[in-house]
Amino acid sequence: MIPYWSDDQVELYLGDCREILPALEVTADCIVADPPYGETSLPWDKWPDGWLQTVAGVTRSLWCFGSLRMYLAHAAEFAGWKLSQDVIWEKRNGTGFATDRFKRVHEQVTHWYRDSWVNLNHDVPRTSYTGPDKHARARASRTPHTGAIGDHLYQDDGTRLMRSVVRAPSVRGGLHPTEKPLGILEPLIAYACPPGGLVIDPFAGSGSTLDAARCTGRRAIGIELHEPYAEAAARRLSQQPLMTAAP
């Protein structure tokens, strides 16, 4: 397999992920996928049957963008995967043309896994906290739904677990109609892939996942079916990243 474009951290392939992934013979720490939802009449928006079975052969950890309609329509294809959580990407202004529904300003991204949870990387990003200092309070926890934990000493380090609603503006005038911003991709990658690990995007589009992986110190492989988008992604990736985000 010859990459369409590559450097020392990223490889981009042109073709169908269902054919290319098995041929690469690699194992990824996680997949970050934004498949076609199959909800529009656009020529590229066709759900690729069998892709979930293909990625199951290369990873045990999967982030998947989608709508609730998409997940319900293809629920049977997620058999064998276990749902761990969902994250809401709030787009701020959002998009939508229906006047008989609430204005849609969000998308879901769900995390799925296979086999044992304890053997997977799940490092929740932390964000800065500016509220009251809560350190050095020894107390017993008896949360009803988790059981008694016993006395423990909490040291407030000025950070908190990142919340499950992530606000990041949509990409306007991007390289792909459904391009995702780095602001939503970077925390997903940081959660599921350790520094230096491998992220795979089977629907690379504009290369935003590959860019986010490189910026956070991960290796990445992307696969894109349509050459105009692969060419645009290659141009994007040829530019040196302006900054490196914290791992």
First-residue to last-residue Cα separation: 30 Å
**Rg result:** 19 Å
SSE order in H/E notation? Answer: EEHEHEHEEEEEEEHEHEH
Structural class: alpha/beta
Coarse morphology: globular
Number of helices: 6
Instruction: Provide the residue-averaged pLDDT.
Output: 88
Helix share bin:
10-25%
Largest sheet: 9 strands, mixed
Number of strands: 13
> Any low-confidence stretches, pLDDT <50, length ≥5?
242-247
Question: What percent of residues are in strands?
Answer: 25-35%
Strand order of the largest sheet: 1-2-13-12-3-4-6-5-11
Sequence-ordered SSE layout with sheet pairings:
Layout: E1 5-6, E2 10-14, H1 17-24, E3 30-33, H2 51-55, E4 61-66, H3 68-73, E5 82-90, E6 106-113, E7 126-128, E8 137-143, E9 147-154, E10 159-161, E11 165-167, H4 182-192, E12 198-201, H5 208-215, E13 219-224, H6 227-238
Parallel strand pairs: 2-13, 3-4, 3-12, 5-11, 12-13
Antiparallel strand pairs: 1-2, 4-6, 5-6, 7-10, 8-9
Helix pairs in contact: 4-5
Provide structural commentary.
Helix content is 20%, strand content 28%. Strand 12, helix 5 (208-215) and strand 13 form a beta-alpha-beta unit. Helix 4 packs across helix 5 (208-215). The model is unreliable at 242-247 (pLDDT under 50). It contains 6 helices and 13 strands. The protein is globular and about 55 Å long.
Highlighted features:
alpha/beta, nine-stranded mixed beta sheet, two-stranded antiparallel sheet, 6 helices, disordered C terminus
In brief, what are we looking at here?
The chain is built from 6 helices and 13 strands. The chain has helices at 17-24, 51-55, 68-73, 182-192, 208-215, 227-238, and strands spanning 5-6, 10-14, 30-33, 61-66, 82-90, 106-113, 126-128, 137-143, 147-154, 159-161, 165-167, 198-201, 219-224. The radius of gyration is 19 Å and the shape is globular.
